[in-house]
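Q: Predict the assembly, please.
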Amino acid sequence: MPKSLFIDPTEARKKGEISFGKIPVNQYSKTIEQEKKIYSKDDFLRIYRDMVMIREFETMLNLIKTAGEYQGIPYNHPGPAHLSMGQEAAAVGMAYTLSVDDYIFGSHRSHGEILAKGLSAIHQLDEKALMNIMKVHFNGETLQVVEKGFKGDAKELATDFLLYGTLAEIFARKTGFNKGLGGSMHAFFTPFGVYPNNAIVGGSGDISVGAALFKKVNSKPGIVVANIGDASMACGPVWEGISFATMDQFRTLWEDPYRGGLPIIFNFMNNQYGMGGQTRGETMGYDMLARVGAGVNPEMMHAERVDGYNPLAVIDAFRRKKKILEEKKGPVLLDTLTYRFTGHSPSDASSYRSREEIDAWEKQDSLLTYSADLIRSGIAKKEEIEAVKLVVVDSIVKALKKAIDDSVSPRMDLVAYPETIGEMIFSNGSIDKMEDRTPDALMTMEENPRVQQLKKKERFGLDKDGKPHSKLKTYQLKDGLFEAIIDRFYKDPTLVAYGEENRDWGGAFAVYRGLTEALPYHRLFNSPIAEGAIVGTAIGYGMAGGRVIAEIMYCDFLGRCGDEVFNQLPKWQAMSGNIIKMPVVIRVSVGSKYGAQHSQDWTSLVAHIPGLKVAFPATPYDAKGLMNSALQGTDPVIFFESQRIYDVAELFHEGGVPEGYYEIPFGEPDIKRKGEDITILSIGATLYRALEAADILKEKYGMTAEVIDARSLVPFNYDIVIESVKKTGRIVLTSDANSRGSFLKEMAHTISELAFDDLDAPPVVVGSRNWIVPAHELEDHFFPQAEWILDAIDQKIVPLKGHISGTDFGDASIKMRNKKGI
Amino acid sequence: MAEAVFMPRLGQSVESCIITRWEKKKGDIVEEGDVLFCYETDKASFDEIAKVSGILLEFFYEEGDEVPVLANVAVIGKAGESVDAFRSSSPTTSAVELSAADSVNVNPLETSQHDASVETPSDEKIRISPRARCIAQAKGISIQGLHGSGPNGRIIVRDVESAGLNAPKAEPAVLIVPKAEPEAIKTVKAEQNVSTPAFAPIISNDDFVETPLSNMRKLIAKGMHASLQNSAQLTHHTSADARKLLELRASYKVRAEKGEIPNITLNDLVCYATVRALEKMPAINSHFLGDRTKTFKKVHLGIAVDTDRGLMVPVIRNADDLKLKALATQMKAMAENCRKGNVDPELLRSENASFTISNLGAYGIELFTPVINLPQSGILGVNTITYRPADIGNGIIAFIPVIGLSLTYDHRALDGAPASAFLKEIRNQIENLSNDLV
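A: Predicted assembly structure:
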């Protein structure tokens, strides 16, 4: 909502109409004679070689899957193989013009793209650079296998390396490009500009936009190509990615030199089927996919349908589109028409299409028509064409033999090293800045009005007599977050923050107040209301090498970015074999007062997913220290904040919140109050209800409670809690999450295991009810109250003399509620 | 549907319990949580709490009856429900043999052997938190009979802690009659607001009185019976010239009356002499353990003490280190503690003594066969002093005082000759007591 953009009612209400321009469809019409001016004989033949390489590679995989052998070499590959035979011209054409700095992202059907882009990069890189890349990758582990018995030059070696690294990855070998942890659907190799392929349809649709954002914000050379399927046009992440990529502000608000469209091509590899669903005529309504571009922005996304059966047509299109991006007029939508001969996967019998249709497309197979053109136009002789295949088959046989040989291509030894994968889940880095250069800012940090204002605040909540300072004079939790974040903006030049209402408004809860003045648009901006893209682009931004804070305004909106949070963000560090780092912090604000869809604590959902660090501070000191840790780290963090306590003062840390930089390590719970008789472990804002309960326990029942604030959920060090339970013998766990499946239950169970003999009663969970969150006026019946904690203690742990329970924690109630599912 | 009330099984070793008092009568309304009846094991007393509400339709055992664990004691149900089913089918019983087959049981129990394994674990009856269990174990507090103040009657730490203040050690020994036990029961009872059950005599006939055994009596009975059943004991008798003994006693008495020394009795002197004999001939200062004997390097002397509650045998540890005065003082203190009932139960364990002396001389007993406190190998019975003609030298026959000595020994541990030699050594020691012991 920038004030600089005036919305004129007269203008807005004016009569008029929207007109669309024309979208080219298969307009390429050059003859091979004309193309001879551009391509040398070597170029023409190289294009053919690359297509044959892909075809033969996938033929080999198809035979391994369906016949159990290739060229007399038997092998069983139980894993997936989504083949793209028929689509080779589209892949090679796409990669041909791309430089090594250009990134491609793909789908589950991207073997062809990996090879095409890899071969293109090998062609462009000099021998020294190639050797360096291969030697550095996993300290030459992959290279060593390829080098054995190899004769030839570095480019040939690199080609063998590409084939072997990809195949070993598909076969889950430790020597594969990603240590065998990615596999067929996720293999990639960033030094050649091949970024993660994605097994979730359209998964790359928003992640790739984040990589383009990284290139723009950090002035990196190159463009990004998202190779996604035609059926993914229906997916939310793709639409959201397109919406994000086409935001007006890139051209209207961002300052030079950052002004201008994102450098990304949404390249729909349109093989006309989404598994068995025919996109044109059955499952979609666009008639031709390229039409979609018309509705997105006035440039119609420079949309075009290109004949993906002709490699030269595709190259031509990419050459033209890349120029548009370089002129900062992107993004671009390409509808690259193609066809796959094989099924969705080897188990697909293609029952949804006729033999006649497949035959018709096979007759126009790009390998046949292109090679015939080369012969016809005198570029190559028939024997030369045939020789290409022989060389290729030879290379693939070589790669296959090595990739299936356990002695040179072992799998991870999870018997000898059972924690290998576990240790790859997090990178646990500690890095001040992702790149070393002066961060862009509009003023110094000292000049910042909020920084100046905070200097005057009381950094501890109580005066020397123990009385609270006035709220306005007191440093609050949101100030702690702000201090950590602004500090990092001045440390790490790659840091960007965005989400809904992040700029101008300062975030819906004023955490970012003061940042708008300090930061240019390209470091702090408002995103579309598209949580999928907010998180998805952050993933791409982190993958490409930047640090990012994305904000989800209400925890309840996590559902809107489920795939990004559950399937993408947590997975890529380990799936890459730890090549990729993911310094991505997702700030998630837990609401209250706003009913069923704006008040839920979903910490348990993300804590369940391996690969995410999860924090939920409840005090200003912890908020600042944990945010500092999150922003210093290299792992994805879901950082929960509670709207109920953005304004709390520091009441625990002696001396108040330090002005300087400090970190609170993830996973360390904190004793907020010492006690002897019972332990109360809380997550998030419920800390204050736990303290209230502790007060009542002391006053009314003479029991002292030890109150522990979990502070983070993943990781979590149980030592402090167990030590406390060993002392008290009793524990209540409480948070605002509804109790069924709450992370508290996980903790309660773990505590039971670790401290069984020390327990005087089972650990008891006091969570919210398994209902919708009702209106604010009824919330006290939904969220745990101090009294509930007492009731639970009285009924389940140790009867409190004279206590009258208001809530029922009895066995009968538990059974009844479970029986009813509430 | 009516429900049976079973006698709880309170641990592997408990085979039966005695109902000490019925709190409900037949036909009474019973609320869940009410005390139905009080019962005791050989170690402690408990209340049986009703687990269901209803009417006490029938009960099958009277106060004072010994009831095998898991036996059906009573039936609670709705008015008018038949209890026949409960009457006819006896529950799974443990291998208890009732001492009196013709006892007054309404429903005589099967004592068949098909029972060896009993399904119901006692833990199902005792709800206790793991922490409370650990603490009880560490402190040696028996959890049986503890009142659970936690949710659903769970025994929680505070219950164990309050019971732990005076509770008996959980480990019983054959002849140990822990003095603390009756008090502990009182403590628990007091907390439960239930008065101590009276062992009221049951008058079943004008001619006799039947009295249920006290726990102490049961322990003594069990111990003595076990001793005679499980060893090869026999007794040798002899007597020693008591002139020296009496002479010393007389002089000590004078000095004691002047307050110069503590009172030193004949028994003290005999004990002192016996310790010296044990030092010289340690074979009998031992435990017989079936496949081996354990011979002690020190003398831990058990002293039989008669108390109101019954026989107690406290031990004087390292009695061989004590001079006569110290021995006398300690024995006196120990006997007083026993009579007052505040002796450390550990000192009552027969395993902790290496040899025992029992003195019935004060009762005028001239000869008896004391019973060994297993696993000890021997026990010396000390009798009264009588006069007997003896050659006092120069062909003069005169009556001299002699003290009778009865040594019971376990023939499994040693043979008649060494036993006799040992007895002779005691006589020697008595006859040759030194003048300057004090």
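The first strand of chain A starts at residue 69 and ends at 70. Residues 32-412 of chain A form a domain with the Rossmann fold fold (CATH 3.40.50.970).
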